[in-house]
Design a protein that fits this description.
Oligomer: single chain
CATH topology of one domain: 434 Repressor (Amino-terminal Domain)
Number of helices: 8
CATH architecture of one domain: Orthogonal Bundle
Strand content: 15-25%
Distance between the termini: 32 Å
CATH class of one domain: Mainly Alpha
Shape: globular
């Protein structure tokens, strides 16, 4: 089973577990039933706004994306990932705090940030990222529940952020805060652009890559069409 169909099957499984119809789930997520049907058939991949919306209705988004449960009690078939498993090579003194292993999401020391499926997910596969809780709290003024990781698939931010890099985004933003580097949705593609709030409720959209021309769009249009996925707050890449 390919990556898209795996997500589709687990999304349908979660909907069935919560005893929701396609119509009801579509209403919760702010999409049409037809779009929900395409998600469950693997014809389209859900974006971060959709995933964030269903996460508020007890959907296990991490399971949908990776096949691994972050809440082992959410279903009988839940699969636990324990921190103790990943530290088996350490001495007992080095991992004494894991004598009673928890899932990674439940740990006081680490938080698992879910990933958003990339458009070319087979080319750029990646799962959830594990961040140290203290580091997140010290560096970011937002809750981890509004954070997602995204793979970069286009060259709009080069040379600063490259294709294949991973960015961490916060999708808890307000209209008046549309200033900075954002992941936005254009023509069903996730792209990264710099947004600058202008007078008369306009937004200038530009690239770090000078091969692309900037353009201006209404802030209301951006919000109404749910085109703003989240603000980039961190990025990382291999050397």
């Amino acid at each position: 089973m390919n990556f898209s169909l795996s997500i589709a099957a687990r999304l349908k499984e979660e909907r069935s577990r919560l005893k929701l119809s396609q119509e009801k789930l579509a209403s919760i997520a702010g999409i049409t039933r037809q779009t929900q049907s395409k998600y469950e058939k693997g014809a389209r991949q859900p974006d971060s706004l959709y995933l964030h919306a269903i996460a508020q209705s007890q959907f296990d988004v991490n399971y949908i994306l990776t096949g691994q449960r972050i809440n082992p009690n959410s279903a009988q078939t839940a699969q636990q990932i324990t921190i103790a498993d990943s530290t088996a090579e350490y001495t007992k003194e080095q991992h004494h705090e894991y004598d009673n292993p928890k899932t990674a999401m439940e740990s006081d020391n680490y938080i698992k940030i879910p990933s958003i499926p990339a458009q070319q997910s087979a080319q750029f596969p990646h799962g959830p990222l594990l961040f140290e809780t203290n580091w997140l709290n010290q560096h970011f003024n937002c809750t981890h529940k509004s954070m997602f990781s995204v793979i970069v698939e286009e060259d709009g931010t080069e040379p600063n952020i490259r294709i294949g890099d991973i960015v961490l985004i916060n999708n808890d933003h307000k209209l008046e805060q549309l200033d900075g580097l954002f992941v936005i949705k254009m023509n069903d593609h996730q792209i990264i652009r710099r947004l600058q709030h202008l007078p008369d409720n306009q937004v200038n959209i530009s690239c770090d890559n000078t091969n692309y021309d900037p353009f201006i769009i209404s802030a209301d249009k951006l919000q109404e069409n749910k085109q703003v996925i989240g603000k980039v707050i961190w990025h990382g890449h291999t050397l």
